[in-house]
């Protein structure tokens, strides 16, 4: 079967029109006609088309090597080919499971995920990778939802991934995306993935990078990475996207805070959000201020002068302007070659950070290190041993 055949069954027109959200979702029909429990990835209020369409697609295209008449067990182990074919067939359920696989910390899952990614790599790179940051409450989720709707209604396929360091540090999320982007999540051409939980920011970053690639292989042509603006994570997201948007709000000296933390320097586009109602004059003043500031800052992308625009995620004002500016950005960096060179550099930088992470992991996992580490810590803390001598001694020749 050709690739075209795979895709054909998953084209938009084969998807039944969505039913009103209030309607009770019918149980998913198994291939043999028996009702099947709702899969766990289906939102509580998903429309009928959401799930039945998927099951249908797998059956008719014979994807993932399933026998046509046999019902698929709910959590059947997928092979490398199951993942690869399912993702390329744009099956969101398989995409979700591929991301879960890539997020796993188990070595066996990691190996499988790398095999899947290697096979999918030729199908990646065709999206616009856009990072969005802003302080909590700036309106990121509302804005992404508004932008997402505008994009899907214009024929784009949008994936939204979140990096939320609070979910790894405190075990709770301050993004609250599950609530905010529910409506966009019901769009057949939108895919929303909350931040992976657990692990370091570096671990979360690796998982998000791999999720970007998987989403691209699944045919999403816009991948938005949302992160909350609380420090180091903006730099991390900047290093995995093509274009970086900073969402700001007027007043409370927030714009100055952003400047001090060096976040504005990372921005290819500044969006002053909540430009609605009686907040508009303050936003216009903030815009003028930001334009002045931007003038003195180094530009993160060669050949591109970052604009400052007004928007309201609530009324939709400026949302299409933001997308138009995004289009101009990509046109520019494609012409200058900046897009390609940035991505090449990012991939190499990523490899190096993976090397560091892996070496560190192996070092602390060594038996001799485990046995001597706390004694060495004490010696260093007591001032009996210089830190460098202790470090070199522990590292040894291993
Ligand atoms: N007036 C106004 N309120 C907004 C706008 N965008 C978001 N909000 C509100 O600001 C609050 C925070 O929005 P949210 O999207 O959760 O911000 P996030 O923390 O950056 O993701 C919510 O109460 C939104 O309804 C806007 O453009 N105008
Ligand atoms: Mg949010």
UniProtKB/TrEMBL annotation:
Annotated spans, Disordered: 1-46
Residue stretches of biased makeup (Basic and acidic residues): 1-13, 21-33
SUPFAM superfamilies for the chain: P-loop containing nucleoside triphosphate hydrolases
Keyword field contains Hydrolase: yes
Domain AAA+ ATPase: 126-270
Pfam family, one: MeaB
Keyword Transmembrane helix appears in the UniProt entry: no
Alphabetized GO MF terms: hydrolase activity
InterPro entries: AAA+_ATPase, GTPase_ArgK, P-loop_NTPase
Enzyme class: hydrolase
EC number, UniProt record: 3.6.5.-
Keyword terms of this UniProt record: Hydrolase
Protein family (similarity comment): Belongs to the SIMIBI class G3E GTPase family. ArgK/MeaB subfamily.
Designated name of the protein: Methylmalonyl Co-A mutase-associated GTPase MeaB
Organism: Actomonas aquatica
């Amino acid at each position: 079967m050709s690739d075209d055949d795979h895709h054909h069954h998953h084209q938009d027109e084969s998807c039944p029109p969505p039913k009103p959200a209030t309607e009770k979702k019918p149980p998913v029909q198994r291939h043999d006609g028996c009702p099947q429990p709702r899969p766990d990835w289906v939102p509580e209020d998903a429309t009928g088309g959401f799930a039945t369409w998927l099951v249908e697609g797998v059956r008719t295209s014979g994807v993932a090597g399933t026998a046509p008449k046999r019902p698929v067990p709910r959590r059947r182990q997928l092979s490398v080919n199951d993942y690869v074919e399912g993702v390329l067939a744009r099956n969101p359920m398989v995409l979700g499971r591929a991301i879960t696989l890539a997020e796993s910390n188990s070595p066996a899952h990691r190996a499988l995920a790398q095999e899947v990614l290697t096979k999918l790599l030729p199908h990646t790179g065709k999206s616009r990778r856009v990072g969005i940051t802003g302080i909590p409450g700036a309106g990121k989720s509302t804005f992404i939802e508004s932008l997402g709707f505008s994009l899907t209604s214009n024929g784009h396929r949008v994936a939204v991934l979140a990096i939320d360091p609070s979910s790894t540090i405190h075990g709770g999320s301050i993004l609250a995306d599950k609530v905010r982007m529910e409506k966009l999540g019901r769009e057949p051409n939108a895919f929303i993935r909350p931040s992976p939980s657990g692990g370091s920011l570096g671990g979360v970053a690796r998982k998000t990078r791999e999720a970007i690639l998987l989403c691209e292989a699944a045919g999403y042509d816009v991948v938005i990475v949302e992160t909350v603006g609380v420090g180091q994570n903006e730099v991390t997201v900047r290093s995995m996207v093509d274009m970086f948007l900073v969402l700001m709000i007027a007043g409370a000296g927030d714009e100055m805070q952003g400047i001090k933390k060096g976040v504005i320097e990372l921005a290819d586009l500044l969006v002053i959000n909540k430009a609605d109602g009686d907040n508009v004059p303050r936003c216009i003043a903030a815009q003028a201020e930001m334009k002045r500031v931007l003038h003195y800052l180094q530009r993160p992308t060669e050949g591109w002068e970052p604009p400052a625009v007004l928007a309201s995620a609530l009324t939709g004002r400026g949302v299409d302007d933001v997308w138009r500016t995004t289009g101009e950005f990509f046109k520019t960096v494609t012409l200058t070659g900046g897009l390609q060179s940035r991505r090449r550099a990012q991939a190499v930088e990523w490899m190096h950070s993976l090397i560091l992470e892996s070496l560190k992991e192996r070092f602390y996992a060594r038996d001799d290190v485990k046995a001597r580490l706390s004694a060495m810590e004490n010696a260093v803390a007591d001032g009996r041993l210089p830190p460098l001598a202790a470090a070199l001694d522990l590292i040894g020749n291993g």
